[in-house]
Amino acid sequence: MAIVEIEKVSKRYGDVVAVQNFTLTTKDGEFVVLVGPSGCGKTTTMRMVAGLESITEGSIRIAGRDVAGMIPRERDVAMVFQNYALFPHMNVFGNMSFGLRLRKLPKQQIENQVRKAANILGIENLLHRKPKELSGGQRQRVALGRAIVRDPQVFLMDEPLSNIDAKLRVEMRGEITKLQRRLGVTTFYVTHDQVEAMSMGDRVVVMLEGQIQQVGTPRDLYRKPMNRYVAGFIGSPAMNFVRAHVGEDGIVSAGEDFRLFMRGPVMEAVRKRGLSEVWTGVRPEHLKIRRQGDAASKNVIRGTVEVVEPQGSTTLIQLSVGNDLRMHALLEAHLEPAVGERLDLWVGDDAVYVFDPATDQSIQ
Amino acid sequence: MIAIVASIWVLIPFFWAIINSFKTFEATFSAAAIIPFLNFQPTLDSWKEVLGDPQSLNSLLSSAIVAVGTTLLVLLLGTPAAYSLARYEFPWQSKDIALWFLSQRVMPPVVVLVPFYIIMVQLRLIDTWSGLILLYSTFNLAFCVVIMRDIFRDVSKDVEEAARIEGANLWQIFWMIALPLSLDGLIVTAIIVFAFSWNEALFASALTSQHASTLPAFILASRSTRGVNFNTAAVNTIIAIAPPVIMSFFVQRYLARGLSFGAVKG
């Protein structure tokens, strides 16, 4: 258990900047998820914490100790790799006890610690098997077991769930979260899957091109994205973006069929910046079908249904709005409009996001 | 069909050796003596002669010591070198180093026969086991490094990094992870090096006379003034062929997997 302080850390390979000016301080026992597309620097950041990668600039402290120049062993961290990285020539016991044996602990203590960790993960009966005799889910557990058995200061997990099938992934997601809460070990978790990030993290760090875009709780990221990138990345299906003209009285519009009203403070901010055009954003799940006599908002989005994708509990439709706009809407399952049908949709005033087209920053 | 022809082509010399080893010296010159008991009376005379000859037994011992010694020395020096070439970048390009190593193999060995002879004389290593071991090691080290480098490259980097995170230092990673995972390749390399040293005749003939004379050198030397004693040469040949063949039988599964040099890593 430890607080990890990452301060102004950068990593450059020659001219290529992998991570730039990364600053983050965890709480003790916090579950921090680093999320972003591949090549955004999330894995590099984690590897710098692990000591597998040197730091070009900045400092990392684990439990108050500056770890720059320390080899992984001295940092007391444990890592779970994407492809498990189990030692193929050792059985499960050998894999889990590897780190303890290197530290020359007494045999009995090693035995006890491995049994305890195996017990937590429910793999006591696999201790004598070789990795190739295990299923994907079991290998995953062994990899986790190898990490927890040493009782390290920090867990590092590099896309640990991306190699197992979808159903098991949901199960393991819950298990890892439960395990982390139970052990209370500060954890960095890297993923490119925003659903994983949202469902597991105490805090989520969204990265792009080596830079932090936003740090916040999953709820914050969803409700108050700082910029267009975060807004589009968090949430599934992704937010609809429409480039719209700013008109009088806080109306933004893109043709006849797309007209939204900005809230007062947003309108003020837009006016102050002197913007004539903005990016507007609407989440598919916030779009509703307007019914007769609805006292709903004056926001108007009208379109023709192009594609209908029933998802079970919901129905995803693709609309063409005006001449060249494509938007997605997530409707309740019982609403299954026909292809070609005209839909009249609305969205609540507080669910309209506005972004500065020059900087892509959110205007709130 | 081609396989049958090829097998016959390969097996005829073995057949010749086995038949002749049971003939008398005179019978080896009779063209019609092919089938034992029918064409000629088989005898164990030449086997007795060879196995009773101290010089012959001495060369068998020499061969064993030189081949085993070379294999051990080559693996001892070559594997760590191969590992560091596989895993680390050097200020000068690793690629070039590998090429230098390989150049050793490309050169026709006879080119360096005389220089080596002179060196060995100066080092007083003529007709010694250690002289031959040193010599064969220089030839085989390059081979071992190049092959093992490729095999080490196939060891998953993640697995080694996992070991690093668990607290292993470089030597421990090499010893506890990389080497056990490359065992197939290591065994194949060992056999090839062993077979080379066991079979080498040119340098052995030139650099040894009595004490350290290996089997191939001894066989070459069995040409007497009266011509070749084909029957005893045949016995010696069989003795010389046996160890590598028997060894390959034992480690066949490694050979089959290892010779593809990690292309299909299990």
Written overview of the protein:
The complex is a heterodimer of chains A (364) and B (266). By secondary structure, chain A is of the alpha+beta class. Chain A has helices at 42-50, 72-75, 92-102, 107-121, 136-148, 166-183, 194-200, 218-223, 228-233, 264-273; strands at 4-13, 16-25, 31-35, 57-62, 65-66, 77-80, 154-158, 186-191, 203-208, 211-216, 240-246, 251-253, 258-261, 277-282, 288-289, 300-310, 314-321, 325-332, 342-346, 352-355. In chain A, the strands form three sheets. In chain A, strands 11, 12, 13, 14, 15, 16, 17, 18, 19 and 20 form a ten-stranded antiparallel sheet that branches. In chain A, a hairpin with a 2-residue loop joins strand 4 (57-62) and strand 5 (65-66). In chain A, helix 3 packs parallel to helix 5. The radius of gyration of chain A is 25 Å and the shape is elongated. Chain B has 266 residues and is mainly alpha-helical. Chain B has one domain (13-26, 41-258): Orthogonal Bundle (MetI-like fold). Mean pLDDT of chain B is 81; it is low at 261-266. Chain A binds chain B through residues 50-52, 71-73, 77-79, 81-83, 85-89, 98-99, 102-103, 146, 150, and chain B through 156, 158-159, 161-169, 172, 177, 180-181.
- CATH superfamily of the largest domain in chain A, by name, is P-loop containing nucleotide triphosphate hydrolases
CATH architecture classification of the largest domain in chain A: 3-Layer(aba) Sandwich
Strand tally of chain B, please?
2
Structural class designation of chain A: alpha+beta
Mean pLDDT of chain B: 81
Which spans of chain B of ≥5 residues are poorly predicted at pLDDT below 50?
261-266
> Within the largest sheet of chain B, what's the order of strands?
1-2
Based on Cα principal axes, name the global outline of chain B. Answer: elongated
Biggest interface reads: A-B, 23 and 16 residues
Supply the CATH class of chain B: Mainly Alpha
Q: What's the structural domain tally of chain B?
A: 1
Task: Name the helicity range of chain A.
Answer: 25-40%
CATH superfamily of chain B: MetI-like
Portion of residues in beta strands of chain B equals under 5%
